[in-house]
């Protein structure tokens, strides 16, 4: 999966992506495990990239009781507390609403997702907000009915419970994240960062998302369809790593590359290479190559004045017709419309 643009963008630079409201449950004591997802969402949407301060997101941290002092922690409790500037009512006029992990009791059903939060999530969705969940935040969106009839995911250890409690949701337990357009859900921990970067890529383009990923020292783009976990049979020793051959492939996308070529470079049989790459990435070699070629095309459309025909050649997609067909199917707009939206003013030819 590559970043998908929802509608044909208007000419000129991409507009500011608006307000991101992050909804927090039990802000008086947040487990350290869940704090990662909250901190990561705040880091991605709350810290502007250089030269984009006027076109970055406006971040709101929203809790049930804004500015409430932390409560006393139970003996033996281990977590962090925070003060939120906004209440849950501030979700209603946000452009994007992000729900991070909910308490374990809300996952198991021992406790309801707070009805006040459910009501505000429904109000925000009805007003047209893009709704996003990270990890078990999916249980809050499901409680609000926002996942009914949709495909969604959460951390693999909780997907069975999500499917059991909310049978109207099509739960996919094997992917990093799911982009349903106006509703997006992710698996846990690092997959939440993948989804946040996917949103930046969708809103502000591949170049901005790649720069942010570099700043965070993480992969620029892990497709949402990639598996949540890696088969332990995949070798980790440097001499058996797939990294060198995949790096070679990304540096040579303009040339024809077959699975046999990749397997030969990896010193494996095609069957073994296919199995190991699929175990490591959750996708086939040909699908992996197509994802890399489309990502290269996005970068070239943003950063150069090259004609579409030349971009097709340099990304390895061949003709302009082939580029347009794959690009439009995956990204949702034509290469020309994508360039209008995300073209860098200083892009060289």
Please describe the topology of this protein.
Elements: E1 19-23, E2 30-31, H1 32-46, E3 58-63, E4 79-80, E5 86-87, E6 96-99, H2 104-108, H3 115-126, E7 130-134, H4 138-143, E8 151-152, H5 159-165, E9 170-171, E10 177-179, E11 183-186, H6 190-204, H7 206-216, H8 243-251, H9 259-266, H10 270-281, H11 285-303, H12 308-314, H13 320-331, H14 335-342
Parallel strand pairs: 1-3, 1-6, 3-5, 6-7, 7-11, 8-9
Antiparallel strand pairs: 2-4, 10-11
Helix pairs in contact: 1-6, 6-7, 9-10, 11-12, 11-14, 12-13
Determine and state the CATH class of the largest domain: Alpha Beta
- Radius of gyration equals 21 Å
Strand content: 5-15%
Distance between the termini: 28 Å
**Mean pLDDT, all residues:** 83
Query: Which CATH architecture of the largest domain?
Result: 3-Layer(aba) Sandwich
The spatial strand order of the largest sheet comes to 5-3-1-6-7-11-10
The major β-sheet equals: 7 strands, mixed
Low-confidence stretches: 1-12, 71-76, 229-239
Total of domains: 2
- Principal-axis shape: globular
Helix content, binned percent: 40-55%
Structural class: alpha/beta
Task: From the 3D structure, determine the CATH topology of the largest domain.
Answer: Rossmann fold
Could you name the CATH homologous superfamily of the largest domain? Class I glutamine amidotransferase (GATase) domain
